[in-house]
Description:
Layout (H helix, E strand, L loop, with lengths): L5 H17 L3 H6 L6 H13 L18 H11 L23 H13 L4 E4 L15 E5 L2 E8 L10 E9 L7 E7 L5 E5 L15 E10 L10 H37 L1 E2 L2 E2 L4 H29 L4 H30 L9 H8 L10 H15 L6
Parallel strand pairs: 1-4, 2-4
Antiparallel strand pairs: 2-3, 3-7, 4-5, 6-7, 8-9
Amino acid sequence: MYCLSxxxxxxxARARQFADELIPLEQDAELADGExxxxxxxxxxxxxxxxxxxxxxxxxxxxGGGCTSLQQVLITEQLGRVTNALAWACGxxxxxxxAVATLDQAExxxxxxxxxxxxxxxxxxxxxxxxxxxxxxxTVRRDGDEYVLNGTKWHVTSFYSADYAxxxxxLAGGQNAGQHAMLIVDxxxxxxxxxRTPAYSHTLGSAHKHPIVAFEDVRVPLTQLVGAxxxxxxxxxxWFRFERLMVAARCLGAxxxxxAEMTAFAAERRVSGRPIAELGAVQAMLADSLTELFAARAMxxxxxxxxxxxxxxxxxxxxxxxxxxxxxxxxxxxxxxxVQVFGxxxxxxxxxxxxFFRELRVERIxxxxxxxxxxxxxxQMIKRxxxxxx
Length: 390
Ligand SMILES: Cc1cc2nc3c(=O)[nH]c(=O)nc-3n(C[C@H](O)[C@H](O)[C@H](O)COP(=O)(O)OP(=O)(O)OC[C@H]3O[C@@H](n4cnc5c(N)ncnc54)[C@H](O)[C@@H]3O)c2cc1C
C-alpha cells in the first residue's frame, strides 16, 4: 500500500519496532506523572540512535540520517503511536540550521545535535505574541562584541533538558532596528531563569515541561547570531513547515493506534450478549475513523512526496498547513470516538484512548493553530489559485 520503496519500508519497520518497545512503558510513565527514570530515558535515546532513527531529518554531511521527507513522515508516524512523549527520545534537531550555521556553530551545535549529544529548545512565543510572531517584544541590543537579550518567553518546551535555546527577538537600535534576529543561548547562562512551570493537560516528565523563561540582560558573543540580522522570521517559517508536517505524521500514528485499539475492544466487549462491534452506532464510529485516517495519510504522504520532488516553497507551505489542519482535527475526532467506544474505561488514565484524548488536543494549537492554518491556506488559494495547491 502507498507505493513505499524497500528503503521506506525498512525505516518504517525500525520505527515501528521502537514504538512497540515503548508502548508497554506508557502506563508507568502516566502514573508517575510523566517522569521516566534517567537511565531509562538515556537507554531510549541510545536505542533510537542505534536503530538509525535519531536525527533522520539532518543531512548526512553533518552526521544525520539524510532521510527524505516521506521517510521522516514514516518514522514520526510510528512514533506518534506512543503516548506520554516517550518517543521524544528520538530527536529531530533543527534541520534548517546546517545551511546557515557558521563553522563554529556547526561544530558546537549542529554536529553534537546530530550525534544526540546536545538538545535544543525554542524560546519564541511570549505572553502577548503566539500566533502573531511579529508582535514579539523581546529585544536584541548590540553592545560592542556582544548582544544583550531581554524578554520573557512562554511555553519553552523541553527547556529543562536543553543544552541551548534559540531565542528570537527584535533588534533594538542599529541599522536593522525593529527586524527579527535569532540567537543561540547556551544553557544555563547568567540571566536566564525560570519564572514558573505551569501544569498542562498532557502528562509529560520534567525533561519536556514548558516553563515560562525570563531572559534578563543575557549577554552572548556576536558569533551566536544565526544567519544575519533580520533573518529571524525566515528560520521560523522553515521550521514551521517541517514541524507542521511532523504534527500531521504524529497524528496519523496516534489515530492508527486508536483505531486498532477501538476495533479490538469493540470485537471483544459484549453488551446484552453480543459484541458492541455489531451495533450500528459503534460501527459508524469505527468506519468514520478509519476512513478519515486513510484520507489524512494519503494527504500527508503526498505532501511529503511533493517536498521531495522540489515543489515550490509556497505550495509546500500551504500543503503542510492542509496536512496539519486535517490530520490534527481528524486525530481529535478519532480520539473522541475512541473514548466513547471504550465507555467508562475510555475515561481511565490507564487506557491509551484517555491519554490520547488529552495529548492530541495541543496538535490543533502549537505550530500554528487550526485557524492560522486555514488563513494560510486561504491566503495561498487567493494568491495562486486552488488548482496550484491541491
Ligand atoms: C504545550 C505547548 C508547547 C509549546 N511549545 C512552544 C515552544 O517550545 N516554543 C515556543 O516558542 N512556543 C511554544 N508554544 C506556543 C504555541 O506555538 C502557541 O501557543 C500557538 O502558536 C498559539 O499562540 P497563543 O497561545 O498565543 O494563542 P493566540 O495567538 O492568542 O490565539 C488565541 C486564539 O485566537 C485565534 N487566532 C489567532 N490569530 C488568528 C488569526 N489570524 N485568524 C483566526 N484566528 C486567530 C487562535 O486560533 C486561537 O484560537 C507551545 C504551546 C503549547 C500549548
